[in-house]
Structures are given as structure tokens and as C-alpha cells.
Amino acid sequence: MSITTDISRSRTTSSAWLGLAVIALPLLLIAPAFWNGYALLQWDTGGYLARWYEGYLVPSRSTVFGLYLHMGESSGFWINLAIQSLATLWLLQLTLRVLGMMQTSRFVAIGLLLIVSTALPWLASMLLTDIFAGLSVLSLFLLVVGGRRISTTERISLFVFTAFAAATHSATLGVLLGLCLVGWMAWPLLRRRIPVAGLVQGSLTIVAGGLMLLAANFALSGNWAWTPGGYGVAFGRMMQDGIVARYLNDHCPREKFKLCPYRNVLPATADEFLWGNSMFNTLGRFEGMNDEMSYIVVHALAEYPAWQAQAALRAVGQQLLHVATGEGTNGWIPHTYGIIARYVPSQVAPMRAARQQHWGLDFAYVNWLHVPTALASMLGLIALLGHALARRRLDDLTLLASTVALALLGNAFICAVISGPHDRYGARMVWLATFVVLAALARVIGGDNAADAPSSPA
Prior knowledge:
The chain is mostly helical.
């Protein structure tokens, strides 16, 4: 009787945890949107949303993500938030399963800690590409190393998800491409850990994502072209570092650039130049300045290589420390308001009623917890890798930790060198470090020795 009672209690407890996971976690992941009364918006949201309506390409605004947002308009974008929440939970539980660590109570505990201590719920509640940046790292990892531990259906789903994520933002595609390249370089040494079939599948997601973006660009604009804007963003970063002013001072006596008359009054930051009321507007913005900016970027790289390298290293270091939640998520997003009012007027009333549009969001208190957690998680990631190296142990959790560390470095390099350090770029990735550290702690607390025990496909 006692054994039967214990089994019954265990099943009851397991069912309770499962119920919490199925019902509460998806809602808690988008709790910021519920609290706000509407999906969180950002300055860039409007540019993505407008792609369906305007029929031309603009810098750094993926048409693929624009189509994804357009799909959710009729629901007030709650469909998009539901997809983001469910995709997050799917990838978290699948990662734990592939690691041989999936227990419902453990999954719920890790999920709740991520919701409380990281930017994850704010990313899932926002109409922006950032949530897919971190999730794509997990999906690529699972596709490469999952092997027989994931089903065919899951493998196809991971492939489609990773390709879509790569198509939403060039920086995300760059990080995934870098991870694949490192995987191929490491494969001769790690053949038992990194299946060649997985590497092939992972690499093909980059190709598929690129083709997806080209196809969407053609469908909406009639042009087989990549999303423009890389040179303009890089130009802004070089201007912020003083390199553009130096180049103009060295060349304006001999060459006639549109910016020559302004070389002594350039804005102090890239954001002021590209998105503020600067001479960039007077000179025709991207359409009028793209050729000149691309010319200066290429030639400044060749003329000041040491300065460029020093600025890049400094920017990468700064980017790794820029991890605060909520950058750009405030009430001052007139471009997005204008796009929604022009193209989706049915959403104006609920959007205007949200807390964000009344300046009701304050991330100061949130970041008292999020920033220390993020920095401690990165240190924990280093400690985890150091411990594995000292013990000469490379299990799947260590491989995931290595993947996340490389993704953080790659993201910092791409974003900082091209665009300059921003908290938004760090916050969208650093929660992965917290997830890995929590998984490692759960393994220690749970006494899991067979961390790589295979799990049967669901």
C-alpha cells in the first residue's frame, strides 16, 4: 500500500509540474506584453512592418520578418507573441532532452528563473527580431548534435526555424555562419561529438535562410537583391570613433565629398547621425549617401588598419559588457507609431492605450537584477569551460557552453564592429549563458552523471 501511495503521489506531483509548464510558462514568457496591454514596440518595428505595404527595400529591415509581422496584424500581433513564447519553450525543453537532463520539474524551475532574471520574457513580448537571435543558436546546436535523439519531424522543424531566424537579421545570419565555420574546423578533432551529417544540415540552413530572404525581397520589391544598409551602419560606427572625420580631413582638399563641408561638425554618435536631425537627412539619407559612405568605409579600412583594429577590439570588449534589458523600448518611437497609423489603423487605439505609449516602462529596477545576472552568467560560462578543460571532459553540455561562448563573441564582434556597442545587442544573446549555467547547476544538484545518455525521439 505504501509503495502504491508513493507512486501515486509522485505521479500527482509530476502532473502538477506538467500542468504548470503547459499553462503558466507560455503566459509568463509574454507577461510583459500582458502587463503593457499590447505587444512591446521598438523604433525598428515600423520599418519591418512597412515592408509588406511599401514594396521596396530599406537598410537593415528584413522582408522575411516583415511578412511574419504582417501575418499577425489581424490578431493585434498576439499570434506573433504566442509563436515566440511557444518556440522558446520548445527549444528549451528539447535542449534539456538532448542533454539527457529533461525532467518536468527541472524544466519548470529553469524556465521560471530565466523569466525572472533575464531579458527573455521582454524579448518574447516584443515585435522585433531579437528573440530569434538567441533561439537560433539553440536550434542550430540541436540540429548539428541532436542525431538520433531528435525525431525526423523535430529535425525538419529545427531546420525551418533556423533558416527563418537567419533570414530575419544579417547579424543573426553572420553568427550562425560563424558557428558553422568553427564547427567544420573543429570536426577533424571532434568527429565523435559533431556528426558530419549534422554539420551539413546546419550549414544548409544558412543557404536556405539566404534564399528565403532573396525570394521575399523579390516578391515584395521585384529585385533579386540582398537587404541593403551594411555600409551605412558601418560608416556610422567609424564616424563615432573619429575615423570618418580623420579621413575627410585627409582627403577633402583633393576629393569632393558631400560631407566635406560638414567634416568639423559631424555628430558625436552614429545614432545621432543616422536617426537624428543631422546633415544625413539634408544629403538624402541612404539613397543620397550610400555610394559615398561605402567608398569611405572601404578606403578608411585600407588607410587606417591599426586604428580600425584597435577600435574594433575596444568595441567588442564594450559590447560584451553592454547587457542591460530594454534599450530603445520606451515611448519615443514616432516612426513605428506612424507606420501603424498609416497601414494598420485598426491597431492605433489599443497601441495608444498601452503603458509603453504613456511612458510607463522603467527598466532601471529590472536591470538591478538582469545586469548582475548576465555578467555573472558569462563568468560562470568561463568557469564551466575552464573546469571541463581541466578535466579534459567534452560532453554535450560542455559543447553547448562552447557554442554559446562563441555565439556571444561572434555577436559582440559583428554588432560592435559594424554598428557599435549597444545594450540591446548584448541582452538578446546573454540569456543563453544564464540558461547553460542553470543547466550545469541543475546537473550538479540532481546528481546527473550520465549527462550524455541518449534520449529517444518524442
